[in-house]
Write a structure and sequence with these properties.
This protein is an alpha/beta fold and 377 residues long. The chain has 2 domains: 240 residues, Aldolase class I (TIM Barrel); 40 residues, no CATH class. Keywords: 4Fe-4S, Iron, Iron-sulfur, Isomerase, Metal-binding, Pyridoxal phosphate, S-adenosyl-L-methionine. GO terms for molecular function: 4 iron, 4 sulfur cluster binding; L-lysine 2,3-aminomutase activity; metal ion binding. It is an enzyme of class 5 (isomerase).
Amino acid sequence: MSISDKDWNDWHWQLKNRLHSLEQIEKQLALSPEEQRGLRFASKEKLAFSLTPYFFNLIDPQNPDCPIRRQVIPRVEELVSLPYEMSDPCGEDKDMVAPGLVHRYPDRVLFLVTDRCASYCRYCTRSRIVSGVSGQKLETDDKLAFEYLKNHREVRDVLISGGDPLLLSDSRLERLLRQLREIPHIEIIRIGTRIPIFLPQRITDSLCKMLKAYHPLWLNIHANHPKELTMEVKIALEKLADAGIPLGNQSVLLKGINDDHQIILELVRKLIRCRVRPYYIYQCDLIQGTDHFRVPIKKGLEIMRNLRGFTTGFAVPQYVVDGPGGGGKIPLNPDYVIGYYEDKVLLRNYEGKIYSYPGGQDTKQEENYDRQSGTCM
């Protein structure tokens, strides 16, 4: 099939020509029995299958363990649920204060504006509501959501997510941004999206110009493997950065895809070259049917230990796990503090060498307190 450059670079064409079925994929890939059954059953019961031609083109058709392929082609293992897995592992439904609006943390909210994505990650945290095949629908009501936001002055930060909000038209997205900017106590707007990775053609000059009008605006992308950061993606990310939008990346630690410190090291270095700061690396949530993706936390900590000190400090993401059932993000860090000895803290550096730092135990504040001035010396 011959495709013109004009069509290939048109994000509307990419969406219109997404791959949706087993029959379409079988013409392009020699599928394993696990993938065939995944496309036949899991994509109809758990999470729909949808893949842009651009992202499909990154798959190595000869390698069943291709890191791109593993992320987006359904497998039959998705139909296996373990006792501790959940449909809503982050507990978002219980914190939903208006349709589509989740308020868990004191000063910020999650605003879910759509249940559709350009392509679907098989480990999706919101697979219960994303894509429309699981039986549970995302209910949204902008009027009730904005009424809540106007009445809750403690909210200063709104994260727009979904699904993927950059699937909305420029006019629809701008309407949301404008309404948020009209609420005086909302200081920060963030957008969570995988569109620059799945569909970099969507990052048009007109979109960037529109977004630029609503600063301070932050945008977090989602890349898991260096192979995802193509030249097309780099150009899209540079457009966003040139519009003054700070960019961060959120990765998920995935078995057989990026659970190796050399892969993560290459990923974070490549992100920095694309002007994106590595932000979080997530332990895979306890989503039903995702056990084949999960990496032991112990291994995740080993990966983090092999990043700190071996690359630029701001290129090291924070490893986090979402507390099951709604506990929020919990930081996970290697043990750099060994313990306390007398008045010293014993520390281990990135090379494994031990150092001591004075002041390990609490000292009496009165020793350094100027009683006359009432200030610490």
